[in-house]
Write a structure and sequence with these properties.
This is Universal stress protein. Belongs to the universal stress protein A family. By secondary structure, the protein is α/β, with parallel strands linked by helices. 45% of the residues lie in helices and 21% in strands. It has a five-stranded parallel beta sheet with strand order 3-2-1-4-5, with helices on both faces. The longest helix is centred in the middle third of the chain and has 18 residues. The radius of gyration is 14 Å and the shape is globular.
Length: 122
């Protein structure tokens, strides 16, 4: 069993990562972090190094997986492969009209994930 979260440098991504680290420590469960595959390679390597440092300092048991480009697909696939007990995603606040429409990636994760999904609102 694991907890799966995507790593994005957005405020939503950082909130999701912090919540996932807390959940992993509280549950004594390994954390699988999916690093987004969309950044240029030099930025990706620097981001992963900083992520490893942050996670090591947190005390959580973790591993980092390189994403293939579509974060929603990567999160659902890894949640299935690792028999995850939880997927953590970050959501941003939306306008009253925007609240009627959930982001396509978040919606796919909520519908397709094989386990509960914790949505952290920023």
């Amino acid at each position: 069993m694991t907890i799966v979260v995507g790593h994005l440098t957005t405020p939503e991504g950082q909130a999701a990562l912090a919540a996932a680290v807390d959940e992993a420590r509280q549950r004594s469960t390994p954390l699988v972090v999916v690093a987004s595959g969309k950044a240029p390679e030099d930025e990706r390597e620097a981001g992963i190094a900083a992520l490893q440092e942050r996670l090591a300092a947190s005390g959580a048991d973790f591993r980092i997986e390189q994403g293939g480009g579509d974060l929603a697909d990567d999160l659902v696939r890894l949640a299935t492969e690792t028999a995850a007990e939880l997927v953590v995603i970050g959501l941003r606040r939306r306008s009253p009209v925007g609240k009627l429409i959930l982001g396509a990636g978040a919606q796919r994760i909520l519908i397709e994930a094989p386990c509960p999904v914790l949505a952290v609102k920023v």
